Every structure is written in C-alpha cells, then in structure tokens.
Amino acid sequence: MKAIFIRHNFKETDIVKYLWDKKRIAIQYDNIPSIDPEQYHEPEGKASIRRLLKYCKTGVVVGATYRAICPEKMLVGEIKMGSNIEIR
Q: For residues 69 and 50, what is the distance between their CA atoms, to the nearest angstrom?
C-alpha cells in the first residue's frame, strides 16, 4: 500500500485543532466546496483533488502533521479503499 504525507498549514488554529481532535485530514484550495477537479482554478488544487480521489479509490497510509498545535507529533492513519470525501 502506498504512503503519503500531509502538512496542515492552515493559519486558523481552530481548524487545525478540530482536525487533530477528530483525527481527520483536509485539503483546501480557493474555498471551493467541490470534489470535481475542474471546479478549481489553480493547477495545484486540481492535482490535489485528483490525488485525493485516487487515494480514496485505491487506499493509502497517511502521515499528517498539525504543527500549529502539535509540532512534536504526527497522526498516522489510513484512507481505506473505497472511502468517500466529506465536504465541510
């Protein structure tokens, strides 16, 4: 199984704390609430959504940092094959 790394760089520490407490990962580009890559203006946003969709389809091990609130720790988990993306 493939492994990926996510660095949460959100400036809003309340969002980072929520993600840490709920053991969630997130990506955000352009404040667009969509999982359709074509809705994103930036090439990086399109690529990130495409990768996330692929990871949900195939499964992946995830290491994620939440430096704004927990710089010395990392959350390690799994996106299970067939997972859905939750828009928040």
A: 28
